[in-house]
Amino acid sequence: MSLSSLLVEEKKAMLFVEEARKKAEEILKEAKAEADKILKEVSDEEKIKEILERYEEELQREAEKIVERYRKEVERIKSVPDELLEEASDMIVREVIDHKFRGG
Amino acid sequence: MKNRIEPEKLLMRRRIIGKAVMDGRRLLILAKNDLINEAFSRAIEKLERFRESEEYEKFLVKCFREAVEAMNPSNGDEFIVYVNRRDLDLLEKKAGEIFKHSLRFKFREGDFMGGVIVMDSSGKRIFYNTIESRLESLRPILREKVASMLFKEVRMGGEDRRD
Fold first, then answer.
1. Which of B17, B81, B124, B159 has its CA 20 to 30 A from that of B114?
2. Nearest CA in chain A to B146
3. Where are the domains of chain A?
4. Per-residue pLDDT at B159 exceeds 70
5. Contact residues on chain B for A66, CB-CB shorter than 8 A
6. How far apart, in whole angstroms, are the C-alpha atoms of residue A68 and residue A64?
7. ipTM of the assembly?
8. DSSP characters over A38-88
9. Do A99 and B149 touch (CB under 8 A)?
């Protein structure tokens, strides 16, 4: 092989290596972008999960307050004076005795 | 991200707060029912005592008259009358006075607190006018009346509140 043909072959090989390097860089760039995207998604998911967990805790506290308000209302209802219960039962008795059904 | 969170939050709120409100209302309803039932229990005790009182006789006659008249009787009609064993003699005596012998009655023993059950001779028409049946037929209206007596004030402050 002559010197000139050797130089030509060397040039070809260099171009080939250069092209391969460019392709490798492109692949690396794409892989990095994909990895970043995945990482961002994971981090978003975690953030969403965290936000929703905090919100759920907040809602649970709010819910407890609501139930507590109803419990107080129940206590208030249960403290109906005995005389009022007596009045109510007297009213029932009166209605049962005095009510006129048809034909009466 | 906000687009994903807001609908989730809304669902979560509906689920958690909705359940709390429902639980609270259930507690209120149960408490109110207990008190209404207590009023009815006391009323039944009083009705049992009324059964022993002097006014009961007047009531019994009224129930009897009401039940027979509800049957739209004609002269000579026969009715079967169920009464508590303790009322048998009394009502047998009173029947003639009340309907001037224009109607015929057969008296039988009934297992109830007081009042009467009147049935025509064919058994097709029956009028229940016992203390128990009067209480039961009035119960839905009476429950409302009792509730309004007992919870008038409370209802304004509590049950009607919207969470």
1. B124
2. A88
3. 3-98
4. no
5. 17, 20-21, 24, 163
6. 6
7. 0.86
8. HHHHHHHHHHHHHHHHHHHHHHHHHHHHHHHHHHHHHHHHHT--HHHHHHH
9. no
A-B Cβ pairs (cutoff 8 Å, strict): 145
For chain B, how big is the Rg over CA atoms in Å?
A: 26
Q: Which residues have a Cβ under 8 Å from the Cβ of B132 and sit 6 or more positions away? A: B112, B113, B115
Q: Is the pLDDT of residue B75 over 90?
A: no
* Cα B125 → chain centroid: 21
Q: What is the SS3 assignment for A24?
A: helix
In whole angstroms, give the CA distance from residue A64 to residue A55. Answer: 14
Q: Kindly give the residue spans of alpha helices, DSSP state H, lying in B52-130.
A: 55-70, 88-99
C-beta atoms of B4 and A69 within 8 A: no
* Alpha carbons A75 and A82: distance in angstroms, whole number: 14
Q: How far apart are CA B114 and CA B61, in angstroms?
A: 11
CA distance B1 to A26: 30
pLDDT digits (tens, 9 = 90+) for A30-76: 999 999 999 888 888 899 999 999 999 999 999 999 999 999 999 99
Does A16 contact B at CB distance below 8 Å?
Answer: no
Closest approach of B78 to chain A, Cα-based (Å): 18
Q: Grade residue B162 by pLDDT with cuts at 50, 70 and 90.
A: very low
B47 and A93 in contact (C-beta within 8 Å)?
A: yes
Query: Which tokens belong to B50?
Result: 């009324």
